[in-house]
Amino acid sequence: MKLRLILGDQLSKNLSSLNDVTADDIILMCEVRAEATYVKHHKKKIAFLFSAMRHFAHDLRSDGLTVHYTTYDDPANAGSLLDEVQRALDRFDITEIIVTEPGEYRLLSQMRAWSDTLGVPVDIRPDDRFLATHTEFENWAAGRKQLRMEYFYREMRRKHDILMDGEKPIGGQWNFDDENLAPPTQGLNIPDPYEQPADDITREVMALVDASFSDHFGDLTPFHYAVTREGALDALDLFINTRLAQFGTFQDAMIQGQPWMFHSHIALYLNCGLLTPSECIRAAERAYHSGDAPLNAVEGFVRQILGWREYVRGVYWLRMPDYRNANFFEATRDLPHFYWDAQTRMNCLRQCVTETRQNAYAHHIQRLMVLGNFALLAALDPAQVNDWYLLVYADAYEWVELPNVHGMVLFADGGVLASKPYAASGAYIKRMSNYCDGCSYNVGQKNGPKACPFNYLYWDFIDRNADKLRGNPRMGLAYNSLDRMTDQKRKAIRDDSVRFFKALDNGENV
Ligand code: FAD
Ligand code: DLZ
Ligand code: SF4
């Protein structure tokens, strides 16, 4: 008899480990302490995943399959995936273990040793729920000096014939980024996000999470996420019908009290397997062809999934395990308390942490240009920053989190993923949000105790890292400006930064 192990982020019926399943096989699913606490995941993330796992198990059973499901509070729960597999081997006559390759290097390297540890063959199958295989990405990357997402994306567009007009991109250009930079405007009509009332299974899981993970970050209630494939498809439909048309234009905008904007909020479903990337891309493409959404929106959305999502996965598997240890700027500062408690006078950070705590969600620009920008400018320790991002977001798994944080935000990989650091002063946040209106700092002021800290920290970052960044052609403008500054101005920047970092390191409410 075969044992087919399905992980919490493998909730797809077309999974490679289920390809040839029969009613005689045993499917094993388990809620285990090791996975829920190797970083202390957000309460809402655990509730989402456990509920989605339980619904998926029900679904497989109604297809006539045999599922052994270990709940977290089962007194016999052995606490880790390996120990749960061992317990199944003790109970049943298992001749082979079949599993789809996990999304994290940590687990894959453990699983590669399972066959020896357990004395049963382990068939680790490719995860074919992505549009590019590992080999395709490796071939694309081979011999290239720089791995730029844009070129990978164009190949994917051609290969999968998405938004193409023969050999040419529809609309005559590959990318409409210059149309997707609108700042927040007054009176935007932002539709309500998808909301699904909790059913009995979700309520039971919420009680479990409340009792067992009370020391984890984040609000458990209200809980509105979909936990089934049908629910996730409804959430996708709602996005396509009510948000997609504005997605492009306001992709980078941030508004106080508006966590959802025109984003899709589907990454958590995609990453645990409730949605497939192809169906999301095709749904958006159909909306373009039927005239329901403009090209700048549809192309922008397609690029995120067909381009960025596939590309970061490729970089992760190409570069692991060394990737995790890179620290280009030798950054060592501890993560400040306000990443947990939101107690900071910097309104942009206060808003983004508060929304992250409430929803286990923040949209891309909040993650990149507020939370990430500060981590970069303040030289926060990449390991601590990575752990934070991995645990706070419901869509976070290392294969997608690490390249985004390590590569895109912290430039810790020295430029594998991004051609230059995404560092910005307060002017960027002011342009793309209305956060500065409610801030105790003054974004227009460059120096002094009332000045927006992003202003002087930006220049301090540029100055401090001149030996590492000056040679980067994309940093030329920044260094030209730095070189034109008077000594007095540079001293003011240094003094403000020293004062700010001292207060930050003392745990003061900066
Ligand atoms: P939308 O803005 O509606 O985008 C549509 C989809 O495109 C997303 O659902 C996602 O699947 C995909 N996508 C968009 N940008 C990226 C990207 N840079 N990398 C990979 N996929 C992308 N995404 C995750 O799925 N998990 C993470 O752990 C994660 N961590 C991030 C950490 C940082 C510091 C940054 C800057 C980005 C991170 N992202 C991560 C990418 C992106 O921010 C999220 O995918 C997005 O915010 C999820 O919200 P959404 O579904 O509303 O996305
Ligand atoms: C994230 C997560 C959590 C919180 N809990 C479980 C679990 O109890 N059981 C399980 O099989 N998977 C869980 N996961 C998802 C895994 O951590 C995920 O499969 C790996 O990180 C690989 O991507
Ligand atoms: Fe953030 Fe500076 Fe604006 Fe305050 S003034 S919200 S710290 S960018």
UniProtKB/TrEMBL annotation:
InterPro entries: Crypto/Photolyase_FAD-like_sf (IPR036134), PhrB-like (IPR007357), Rossmann-like_a/b/a_fold (IPR014729), UV-DNA_repair_photolyase (IPR052551)
Protein known as: Cryptochrome/photolyase family protein
Organism: Aliiroseovarius zhejiangensis
Taxon lineage: Bacteria, Pseudomonadati, Pseudomonadota, Alphaproteobacteria, Rhodobacterales
